[in-house]
Hints:
Elements: H1 3-14, H2 21-43, H3 48-60, H4 63-72, H5 83-94, H6 102-114, H7 126-153, H8 155-158, H9 174-181, H10 194-208, H11 212-220, H12 223-234, H13 239-259
Amino acid sequence: MDEVKISALFLDFCQSFPREDMIELKIMHTRRVVENAIRIMEHEGFSAGLYSLGVCTAWLHDVGRFQQFQRYRTFSDRQSVDHALLGCSEVLRLGWLDSVSATERNLVLHAIAFHNLRDLPERLSEDEYRLSALVRDADKLDIFRVLDQAIESGYLTAHPEIYWGLPIARSPSEAVVAAVREGKSVDYADVCSLADFVFIQLAWCSGGLVFAESLRMALARKVVETRRDYLCTLLPGSTDVICQCCSGVLEKMKRRLEYGA
């Protein structure tokens, strides 16, 4: 696939939307996801063909977010539509994959469709799995960055659409805490507060990142520590459970790196 062509098509597509904060945020997010994907692939031995597909899929993974926000003014799939499936429809409608083989087209569409699922489907081919896991890891790593910057700048409070408009002053739910402690993905139906929203990301650190380089990047960027400190400040009555969960997540991450991700 032509990485330069796909990136140009995506950036031109973005010009058709109003230049507002949430649109700019998604453009920058996509650029960072591409950067993350390239770094992961360079450390994880991707073949040349899959490398090219990885770069292109990173550019395309969130195409559905733009129409989603324009139509519904939210990034919550629960309150609107599945942005990944909408993205697949957009890519097909725009004809961006018309010139590639059916095999490549299906790999890219599957990776887009799977990138926001709680867990990857079973029985994927090796290429499907690696490409889908790549996009999911690269996406998560930049979602960490987006939340970090929003917390630091105060942007988060001013833009509740980032965290689905959830209540702020509420402790994490028992089901979400249990999932993080057990190294499982969080069921979005259990997410009832900003703390739960942040705990989703702790669960990603615990068991949701596939590649060793992704774990190294998350540890180097102190993703867990930033969320621990923020939540302890936000919810002083829940510091014990927050600190215990975060300590457990850090231990799991380091153990996975030591014994193989």
